[in-house]
């Protein structure tokens, strides 16, 4: 059977999604290795790593526009047959990454102490976290350069090279980390140095890839301003997510230690499966952006629903798998009877929401690929303010426990589902051209 021109093959979608998943999973896997290495130093270094890691992670969490925003702009130019200009988006994103990264690294040296003490209080954990964080922050420009590199390469539908670059940096660092921490006796500081080493190696590969393209490397303030416009919307969207998850963790902690532990277990599984589904969104972003850049609105619409169907199928499959694992899997994470007793209060929400997440994440990718960041900002903020935050704090007031927290998450996801479905059906996102107007 001849493939209809407005469709793309499942092989094409997976060819973009699977390497993207590898990139998304590489950092969490490296964190696991780092945690295992530092864990043998004792409780204080491990707690310090947790505090420092949370703070450093905020850099990449809040500046996702360097990857997702760059992908959207580069994909349109790539679809229009203007590869050099697509790569030029990567150049400007890299300049932005360097400038913002240097500023954050310098400001972070001043704020590391106060921020660590806010999270950990006064004492040896905070002191150790500050030492780790001040070194880790030196890698900030390289973290952001890697994000920018991922962005433009996804835009030109190359997700294989980013996987190689990120794996190379993390693999070398994973080998170096135990040597620095245990063999050479650097302790917790060795972990931070290894972390920076990984970021430098990966960023170096992405910079080399730009040089090989032989495009102009000078800053273009007009392009940078355009990227910052989309960046504003995506940063506000990220802040809405953070407000929700911080509130959920706070309410769980105030409920009971068992509820907090159970929430942590289920939330980490939710986060991991989000990576799986987000890789499909990255494929959607690249393909839809390219179709709109080529002026093919019909193809963009067809691809959007095609990828959404894939998201639904994957979400249903994940829900079935984790429903079957409801008994044995939580015991892998904890033997604590009180925590295990709390987990079912969140588990069945987690399972039931997988199909919803599959559709929401796929359509997020479609709308991001179309450059519809302002709508996504408003939809996410609205779902947080109307759905999640009132329910989660009401859960605390009325003592609904973990069930109330996950009712809030369900409301958040269902409101986003309605919003993105209505937007997708309206077609107002499908603005053709190399640059969204």
UniProtKB/TrEMBL annotation:
Domain of life the protein comes from: Bacteria
Keywords of the record: Cell membrane, Membrane, Transmembrane, Transmembrane helix, Transport
InterPro entries, sorted: DinF-like (IPR044644), MATE_fam (IPR002528), MdtK-like (IPR048279)
Main location: membrane
PANTHER family according to UniProt: PROTEIN DETOXIFICATION 44, CHLOROPLASTIC, PROTEIN DETOXIFICATION 44, CHLOROPLASTIC-RELATED
Topological category with respect to the lipid bilayer: Multi-pass membrane protein
Protein family membership: Belongs to the multi antimicrobial extrusion (MATE) (TC 2.A.66.1) family.
Subcellular location as annotated: Cell membrane
Membrane-spanning ranges: 12-31, 93-112, 132-153, 165-186, 192-213, 234-252, 272-295, 307-326, 346-367, 379-398, 404-422
Protein name: Efflux protein, MATE family
